[in-house]
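check these tokens.
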Amino acid sequence: PDPPGRYADSAGGFCYQESAQLVSVTRNRFIHWTTSGDTLELVEESLDINLLNNAIRLKIQNCSLLPGGVHVCETQNLIIILILTNQTVHRLVLPHPARMYRSELITEGQMQSVFTDIGKVNFRDPSNYHMIPSIPGLASNSTASAAWLSSDGEALFALPSASGGIFVLKLPPHDGHGIVSVVELKQSSVMQRLLTGWMPTAIRGDQGPSDLPVSLSVHCLEHDAFLFALCQDHKLRMWSYKDQMCLMVADLLEFVPVNKDLRLAAGTGHRLRLAYSQSLGLYLGVYMHAPKRGQFCVFQLVSTESNRYSLDHISSLFTSQVSASATLLGEVGWDIKGVVGRVSLEEVNIAGQWNQVFVQPLPEEEVTIRDDQDPRVSEQYRGERIMDLTWDELKKEVTLAVENELQGSVTEYEVSQEEFRQLQVEFWSKFYACCLQYQEALSCPLALHLNPYTNMVCLLKKGFLSFLVPCSLVDHLYLLPDAHLLTEDDSTIFDDLEMSRDVVCLVQCLRLIGESISMEMAFIMEMACSRLQPPEKAAEQILEDLIANDTENVMEDIHSKLQEIRNPIHAIGVLIREMDYEMELEMERAQPLNVRMNLSQLYGSGTAVTVVCRGVCKMATTRFLICRDLLILQQLLLRLGDMILGGGQLFQSQQDLLHRTSPLLLSYYLISWASQCLASDVPVDTLESNLQHLSVLELTDTTALTPHKLVSSPQTIVELFFQEVSRKHIISHLFSQPNTSLSETSLNWPHLITAIAADLLSLLWPSNPGFLFPECLMGSCQYTQLQEYIRLLQPWCHVNVGSCRFLMGRCYLVMGEGHKALDCFCQAASEVGKEEFLDRLIRAEDGEMASTPRLQYYDKVLRLLDVIGLPELVIQLATLAITEAADDWRSQATLRTCIFKHHLDLGHNSQAYEALTQNPDSSRQLDCLRQLVVVLCERSQLQDLVEFPYVNLHNEVVGIIESRARAVDLMTHNYYELLYAFHIYRHNYRKAGTVMFEYGMRLGREVRTLRGLQKQGNCYLAAINCLRLIRPEYAWIVQPASGAVYERPGASPKRSHDGECPAVPSKSLIEILELEDLEKECMLAHIRLTLAQHDPSTAAVAGSSSPEEMVTLLVQAGLFDTAVSLCQTFKLPLTPVFEGLAFKCIKLQFGGEAAQAEAWDWLAANQLSSVITTKESSATDEAWRLLASYLDRYKSQNHLYHHCVINKLLSHGVPLPNWLINSYKKVDAAELLRLYLNYALLEEAVDLVLEYMDALLGKGHEHFGIERPLSAIAPMVWLPYSAIDQLLQALGENTATHHCSVSTSPRCCHPKSRARKEIPPPPR
């Protein structure tokens, strides 16, 4: 009994009016609730989408919720929840889902619940709650209540009055103003006295007024409401709320056969329910509670003229057990009956009989833990979620709690392994017992919830929600208790009554066997299936155990039952056909986009997935037991032989039925295992890697390969499969009938759940050609589960063998067992072209070159192995595939290329070269050759590259290396050196020399650094060495085009600024270089290096400079000796050298100490004839000495170098040194005079003329190089009279500024008059 002031726990549910419409936001949505004391828990469920924020818990302090005191009302825009407690009434106003989600098209996988904004509700708003007035007051001994919304939006609450009758409390509309009013519905005092006179005094005692309602229901009209009150005086009263009149009083005891005892007792246990249909009218379901035999009555309300009403009795049904609650739909009633230890449900059929409903039993009280099992890994992890944690968090919390408890109980420092295991078993068993108690408490049934629009029935328990689904014929017969099985109508089983009786007798035999099998015997069959042993052998062993342990003569009962079966072989065949789902599934038709989008989320929520998959699991488990018992029965039939079957049928039984039953048993074992096998959570990086592999296989466009979402609660692999893959296939198949309007389609839960379960079983059925389930496991990274699935399937199932081997190979790849994977892939190849999955794997894309199916398969596998990074396996498989491609040169070329690539990646250079040479496609061969050259160069494995024979590929190799050499950076790659070594190895010295000369040219042009100049010199030396190894007549090379852009195949054309392609230049003449030319270039390179070493800043310009440019650079740097050597080699004039040296002397002459110090550097780079180390010698002096030595050493025609030096000095206004004047006077005095005149040095010119004339006359003639002065007997001498005339003219023009005049000098007139023409100078 409940404590005083506390009511019993209760539950209820509400369905949206459009919950059965396909095109509706509220499709398959409903609300259910439980009440306990002062707490109300409300949950909104959807079978299509996962609702967010869908559960709330309300606690109304200091109040107790009335049982059944929650009522949900639906308007166009609102959902209004009316709540009644023993002290207050409340109204919660929530938005309608259609207003929260405007579109009727549901495409998202989740959506906000109506309870999302519950936090915004003001529960203390006076307009939405009210205290129950003390007058008339709530009756203390009745918990009846009713609530409804009026057409004006007012909330009305009907409660039993303490003084008898009913009072109705009215709240004004939530969005309007008004006052709270109370109306009492009570019969007149005369009528009350009359009724009291008729009632026994026992009822009028402590039970209160006789008309006290014990159950209230309301039927709303447009502007009125009928209140039906089932009172404790066993009378049903109907009130009009609008007229406040009692319209009908009916004594229900008139419909109870034996009512004498009932009239003396108050009817406190009676219950009333209403059901309304527009076509049939209003029906009333009444449960008349009696201590020994309760009764259900169904009435129809009949109205006559002048508003007079009566009840039309439809049917009655009796039950012998105490009823907790009931609900009603049309003429079908549902009853929850309390049974000791478990719950049983029964359904009333039209004929007035009870039909059994089989409920999932609670888990076993004890779990058997084998020696090879960890006590922690047990069934306790497969219950419902009991905490607001993710599944992994919950497992960690539980494990930690139990382990801590275990550690705290150990008092000794060390315990043996066996003792520790016993402690583990003890504490985990204790935890499991706690879980069972918890689950048993929460499994207490409170109410039934029936959706009148979809015919869905739910059992509302204290902590759970259970769905009732139809049971198939075979399961129904097998699970039915014996008493009901004997009364089963044979005509409802099969049309053939004799066959129906045979099947019923057969099922009775199976039931006898099943009830006799112990846990140990059952375990024998399960282990046989798990260990891939023949089920027939296990069945035979179990039969022997049954016969040996038959103490209750079960075998005799089975034998006698078998005697009643007219045709046991046929009956067994019928039973097998009923359970076999091997069929060819129809391909669903393509549906319009709007249809697909409307159906995209149908039954897609976690709740629907769980319901469907647990239903399939229950079917598979039950049918596994049926098949097990059927195998045992067939073994018994074989033993009995002719006694039952007759001689001709024994062979048929052996060969046909046994071989059909065994795969059936294994199929159901496999589906049952999969339905209980948990899916693994997959890390994101594993998913991404898997998607990459699937994209290689080109399977990512299939519906089977949606990435597995991380789930917080445990999900089985069948649930994963249904949620991600099969649901869409099944729904599309169910709604594929043409010319069906979605808006006119109504959902029927029993029909749909039966069809969905059957289709799901077909998709899971191992013998069907469809391969979606294993494919889904692969796409969702459930590799461990997939391996176990294939292991259980492999020995007996001969469908999709190749596909299974392929998926097993994928699993091995992920597990890192590559060689096992390769074996599986090779085994699968034999089935290519025979299985749908493998055909889809090898489908050719548009434009893809067709080849044999097996070669296409090998190509996909090779790509997969390549992406994963297993080159050894790629080589093995490609080598195998070549044998398949004997007549297909294109495929052979592809495979040879693949082998080459991976040998090269592995560093197997010789094998890579061998694969290259065997490639039949010349273009691919060239590509491979190019890759071989590049890779071996990058790895510096040049010896291999040079020493390969390259039969018929010599020119190609040279071309590749040349193109690479001309296309890449010279300092980071050594392709020229490689090519040089390549030619030297083959004794082709001229080619080697050409390569090195080109290398040197490019180095000078492109690598303008000191290191580049060093390499350039070495290149030219190497080229010279090569030519010296050749006979002289062949020691020449072709000059490479200077500055040419080497065209590369496939390079884009170069265009001018206006986008036009420039004209192709005409080819220049070929230039031949001999050994002497190379030596000159080598010397030039050496000089460039010398210059760069002396002055690093010149390296940028020296590399590609011509000899003339180099002379200038050398002179600027002060390397005069080197410049002279360069000029002599290339036969260049020394003029720039002398001019440069003269200029440096000038700079030193007028420079400071810094210039003097700097000059020693370049002076040291030139060799002086004699070095003066005295302190008086300066850098200037040394420079002049160097100039004098050069003038003395290097002679020129017409003494050009003296002339250029003097010209340079005079141009800078520098006085000529005496030694220079004396030197030049001796060789060309006339030119010296002209230079003086050019620079207006008249005084020097006059002095020179005078000295010259004296020399002609014999005075100092040796200083002017005159061997014989002028005399009578001497030959004529030369005199520059033109220059002297210019001097005289210049002196005449400047007489005022000069102190002496030539015209006054007698020495000047005499020679002029004597010598009138120039005489050639004497030979020296």
Summary: The radius of gyration is 57 Å. The chain has a mean pLDDT of 82. The first helix runs from residue 97 to 100. The longest strand covers residues 308-319.
